[in-house]
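DATA SHEET
Item: assembly model
Revision: 1
Owner: S.N.
Input lines:
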Amino acid sequence: MSAIYFDNAATSWPKPEAMMRAMADFNANVGANPGRSGHRLSIEAGRIVFDARERIAVLLGAGDPCTVIFARNATEAVNTAVRGLLRPGDHVITSSMEHNSVMRPLRAAEREGVELTVVACSASGEISPADVARAVKRNTRALFVTHASNVTGTIMPVDELAAVAHERGILICVDAAQTAGSVPIEVEKTGIDMLFFTGHKSLYGPQGTGGMYIRKGLEALVAPLERGGTGSRSEFEDQPEFMPDRFESGTPNTIGIAGLGAGVEHVLSTGVETIRKKEAALTGLFMEGLRAVGGVTVYGPREALKKTAVVSFGIEGISPSDISFGLDERFNIMSRPGLHCAPSAHRTIGTFPTGTVRFSFGIFNTEEEINAALRAIEILVKENK
Amino acid sequence: MTGKPDYLIALFNSVSHVIRAERILNGQGIPHKIVPVPKHISSDCGVCIRFLPEYRDQIIQKLEGKTEIIEIREL
Ligand SMILES: Cc1ncc(COP(=O)(O)O)c(C=O)c1O
């Protein structure tokens, strides 16, 4: 039997054919440095990068493609925001469901004099907007919150959180690593100030791509993490202040962005709503099947519509790593055990330090695969009795 | 006189802005070409957009609010 890949929340696989073709085509026929040299191949590389930028802007509901900047991954984008925006004496709020790519930069900022409040979420990973409102103080600068937990899949009420942020005059910065491409997002309609995305999960691009949206005008308040060559204003020794060059120094990952552009095109042509429905159906099927197997605990919201295509569970008497190892060795099923880079989230749902087994589905998974996995889990449970 | 038409060029902040302008002008069917910024012009980026003077007003109008033209000059 061929491999069943249920680790799409770590990185999606397989990728669309068009994504692989775009990357091969860039290497074979374009290859140049975008925006650096003025010859036709350089301009063509510039078009490829621009098209990817524009598609992401469309996907996120941003009117101006230049409000989208590219980075190595979501982590680099979060670091840019945390380090570039927060100053000692500022207060920042986050949730207890954050991934370490948000929690660690915030903890580091805390050691440098930024005040941090972590709002506790419920055992299913849900945040209360009222708790966030209560946490706002005179010096609060921003709320950093995940759009969906990578541990439980819990989708946060971003609309309500944005309303709270606007009402209290603070910024809302959203980690969409788990949702961009699989859950509808409207940055402008919702009033999101910054949004971080990664290219290699639900956008179906390659690893090493990601970035962020910054509301027009806000960029002036965010110092870039790095400065360097941009191909623009070469006669000046100061970093350009305009977007996207302010945050894009050095030769970009053009081949990766070529793949990302094709991945996003695949998402746009399939439709985020269609993807969401398909993934919710698979998730629902899996959760229902799991509940029918005795001795399995499923974490997070019970309804597939309240979460992304991520399911965390545990089996009484077997450690998560033994479950994942057994599924891999004997059934060719790829899952992810442990803490998923989110210790605070596991503390919140009561699974720290053991962790859980996480299954995460993508657009290429099928009902047959889910059913095969349920049979495998049933066998593991029976053997353990 | 060289007999060549007297082109104008539009300068932009960076290649992202040039490509955005190109996409918009393509969509509107306004003739133009991306060319390297001539050496004698102090440049903000490696490429600019060249067009015939008769399209000047149309180009300004179509790019208005979408991508900022830094300057329009004679070539
Ligand atoms: C919720 C969440 N935020 C941030 C990240 C970081 O993404 P990346 O590793 O691509 O920077 C991930 C995934 O690893 C994630 O699941």
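QC remark: Chain A has two domains: 4-14+271-383, 17-270.
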